[in-house]
Amino acid sequence: MQITSTVCGSDYCAGLSDSFAAPQVTLSVLKPINTGSAVNGIQRCSSQLTTMAAQDFNFLLATDSYKVTHYKQYPPNVSKVYSYFECRRRKEGQFNEVVFFGLQYLLKKYLAGPVITEEKIQEAKLFYQQHFRQTVFDEEGWRRVLEKYDGRLPIRIKAIPEGKIIPRGNVLFTVENTDPEFFWLTNYVETMLVQMWYPITVATISREFKKILAKHLKATSGSLEGLDFKLHDFGYRGVSSQESAALGGAAHLVNFCSTDTVAGLLMAQRYYSCPMAGFSIPAAEHSTIISWGRSREKEAFESLLDQFPSGPVSVVSDSYDIFKACKHIWGDKLKERVMERSEDSTLVIRPDSGDPAETIIEVIKILEDCFGSSMNSMGYKLLPSYLRIIQGDGIDLHSVEEILMKLSDEGWSAENVFFGAGSALLQKLNRDTLHCAFKCSYVETNGKGMDVYKQPVTDPSKGSKRGRLSLRRNSDGFIETVERGVGKPEEDMLVTVFENGSILQEYTLEEIRKNARLWEEDLSPSQHNQDSPKAEELHQKHIMNGMH
C-alpha cells in the first residue's frame, strides 16, 4: 500500500493557474507560500532553456583520456557495443534499493541536439595531440558523425522511469550505438553517464531519511502530516560546486519539499518542469545574533520576533549557552512574546552544537518547564503549537534515528522536531556508496551477436551481466534483470529516453515524486521483501540462473 503524504503539494509541479492558493498544513512549520503569477512565466522559460545541450560545451572533451584511444582497440568488424549501468549489490551494502534520478538533466544539459561541430572537432584534435604527444584522436570518425547526423549522437539509451525504486543489483539503463559505423560511441559516453551515481545516491539517502522520519512520526502521532517538511537541505555550502549543489539539491526534492539549496530549486524548474519544488522560512545565523554583542542576545532574539511577526521564524540559539537561552530568554524574558505567536507563526529554536540527541532532550525539557506540553492522540507529548525545534548539526541517518528513539523513550512525539542535513545528505558519499558501475555486456561482430562479461577471480562481486538486458517484475512480485536477451519486450520496464540526439521521454518532478513515494512496508524495514531471508534466497537463485 502506498503512503500518500501530499504536504509538498504536487500542484506546484503541475500546470498552475496564475492565482493558485497555497495548501495549508497542520503542524507544519515550513509552509508553502503563494508565489503569485510568476509561476507560469517560469515554466514557459524552463522549456525554452532546455531544448538542446549547452553550445559552449565540447562533448568531445568530456571523457576519460584513455577512451579517446579505444576506437583502435575493439576487434575488427565490430558493429555494435551494448553496455549497461547498475548499482551493484554487495553483502555489506548499507542500502538495499535505490532511487533512480538525474538522467534527464544530463541528457538535456550535455547530450541533446547537435553536440558535434567542426570547431569542436578541431579544438579536441589540438588538445589531444598536445595531451598524448602523438596522434590518437579519431578526427575522421567524429567528422562522419557531423556529416551523417548533423552532429547528433547516434546512440540509444533505455532507462527506468525517474523516481522508480529499484533493488540493488539490477540494470538501471542501457546504452548502444544505432549506427554500426559508430560502435565506439557507446562507451565514450560512460564517463559522463556514470556521474549519475551522485543524484541517485543523494535521492536514495534522502529517501532513507524519509523512511526513518515516517516510521517515528506515524508511531508517535498516528499520521504522516508534515512529513515532507521534516528534513531541510542545509548542504549548499558543503558541496564541491554549483552543479553538485543543483544535482544533489534536486535529488533531495524528490522526497522532501524543504530546502535552502537554491541551485536545486532552479534545476527542478529548468529541467523537471516544477515552478517551485521546495520552501524555506526566515532564519537567523550566528552572525545576525552575535553582531548584537553577548550582553544583547535577548535584544537580538526580540528583534527577530519583531521583524517576522507572522509566519514561522527559526532562531539559532546556541551562540553562547543554548540552555540558558531557552530557559532565561525564550522561557522568561520573551515568554509572553513567544506565547503571542500562533501555529502559523511558529518560533523554531535551533540548537547547533553539542551531542545532538542529548542537547535536544535537554532543550525540550526546558521548554516544557517554561511553556508546558499537551498529550496527542497517541499518548505522546507535544510542545505548544507556537514552538518547535530544528536540529541541523551532526545530522545523518544514524543520529536522526537515535534522536527520535530517545525522544520517543522520553514520551515525546516526533512532531516536535525538524531536522536539517548538510554534508551527510549531499557530500559524505561517493561512487562506491552504491557501487555504481557501467559495463559492456553484448557486442556484434561480422553480423553475429555475442554475450560478453567480466568475472575477476580476485573479486567475484565485480562480475558483470551478460547479453542484452531487460528489467521486469516477475510472478512473485520481485523486480529482476533478465540477461542474455531472453526478456519479453512487453514486460520490459526500461523505456527509450534518448535516440540519435533526441530526448524521447521526459518526466516532471511531480511524476518522479509519485514514483518515489513511500509504501507501508517502508515503515517497517524488517518486513520489506528485499530484506527478508526469502528475498535473499530468491536473489541468489536468480544470480545462479543468470537472470539476477
From TrEMBL:
What top-level branch of life does the organism fall under? Answer: Eukaryota
In this chain, the stretch annotated as Disordered covers 523-548
Please tell me whether the keyword Repeat is annotated for this protein: no
Q: Does the keyword Cell membrane apply?
A: no
InterPro entries associated with the record? Aldolase_TIM, DUF5598, N/Namide_PRibTrfase, Nicotinamide_PRibTrfase, Nicotinate_pribotase-like_C
Where composition is biased (Basic and acidic residues), the residues are 531-540
Q: Which UniProt keywords apply?
A: Pyridine nucleotide biosynthesis
Where in this chain does the record put each Nicotinate/nicotinamide phosphoribosyltransferase domain? 229-469
**Molecular function (GO) terms listed?**
nicotinamide phosphoribosyltransferase activity
Q: Which GO terms describe its biological process?
A: NAD+ biosynthetic process
Catalysed transformations (reactions): beta-nicotinamide D-ribonucleotide + diphosphate = 5-phospho-alpha-D-ribose 1-diphosphate + nicotinamide + H(+)
For this protein, the Enzyme Commission number is 2.4.2.12
Q: In this protein, which residues make up the domain named Nicotinamide phosphoribosyltransferase N-terminal?
A: 58-157
Q: What class of enzyme is it?
A: transferase
The pathway where this protein functions is: Cofactor biosynthesis; NAD(+) biosynthesis; nicotinamide D-ribonucleotide from 5-phospho-alpha-D-ribose 1-diphosphate and nicotinamide: step 1/1
Similarity section: Belongs to the NAPRTase family.
What name has this protein been given in UniProt?
Nicotinamide phosphoribosyltransferase
